[in-house]
Amino acid sequence: MRAAVLVFAVALAASGCVGEIVNTSGPLETGDGGAASGPDGAQPLGQRDCTQPGACPCTTNYDCQNGFTCFPETETKVYCAVGARGTGRLGQACPNGNRDCLSGICVTPAGGSPICSDKCATTECDGTALPTCTELNTTPVAQVCL
Predict the structure, then answer these.
(1) Among 4, 9, 40, 145, which residue has the least CB neighbours within 10 Å?
(2) What pTM, to 2 d.p., does this model score?
(3) How far apart are CA 2 and CA 122, in angstroms?
């Protein structure tokens, strides 16, 4: 199964892409292994057992502990699963989908080939094939280049 392009069967009109981004897997904690806990007061992600399917919801690989990847089982069940992360950086090809990208986000710009996206804050996307830093409607909220 192709990693369903992490429900990044993306294409936002504003960025010249087509599709939709959906993640209804629920609240989660920070993936940095730090002390922050989720909105429900749950244990920090770095201290949780994410080896069980669905135990640790995610939006990107950065929401998962080291040694885990953000796995889209279905459009509404996206979670950290044991596995190696890709190495593709922003703008690099991802012919095998999300698993090719360090971030776990592979998108297909309108009229183009699949390329890796990444999280952003402001200008990280400038000058790339995905020039717009766009806030996703996901939990946790993430901004990615589209």
Answers:
(1) 40
(2) 0.68
(3) 30
